[in-house]
Specification:
This protein is an alpha+beta fold and 137 residues long. It has helices at residues 29-32, 65-80, and strands spanning 5-10, 20-25, 54-59, 84-85, 96-100, 112-117, 119-120.
């Protein structure tokens, strides 16, 4: 198993306007040049995530529908009071992503994160963010 396992939520793209999601497994650096070939019946697709900026909120326990939504809302509220803005220009298809770092059999001290793509609020950075401008709220 890889860590983290990242689940990205795409709101309203499923049947009857329900949310859909994609699950991604991290491929360690030592396998990235020559990745293992998945079984064809699994219909797995290689995906390379371009460099981008995300805001992160960490939470513990198991990542379940009810607490994931609450944590994503808390992150959105925090960002609304910060110099960072959630993109609303269609730059991303995902509302947010969940990163889970622990095996399901790890019961205590679990680590999860909610990730939201962010861009700066016009501070002049070409790439939309800067590592020196990170703030905690």
């Amino acid at each position: 198993m890889t860590a983290p396992v990242v689940t990205s939520i795409v709101p309203g793209s499923g049947p009857f306007h329900s949310s859909s999601y994609s699950v991604r497994f991290y491929l360690p650096v030592k396998f990235q040049d020559d990745p293992p070939t998945p079984l064809p019946e699994l219909k797995l697709e290689h995906y390379r995530w371009d460099a981008h900026c995300v805001a992160v909120r960490e939470f513990s326990g198991y990542a379940k529908d009810d607490n994931v939504v609450k944590e994503a809302q808390k992150l959105a509220v925090s960002l609304s009071r910060s110099p960072w803005a959630l993109p609303n220009d269609g730059a991303t298809d995902y509302a947010y992503s969940i990163a889970q770092y622990d095996s399901p059999f790890h019961f205590i001290g679990r680590v999860n994160e909610v990730w939201a793509d962010v861009k700066s609020s016009g501070d002049g950075d070409d790439d939309g963010c800067s590592s020196s401008a990170i703030a905690a709220y």
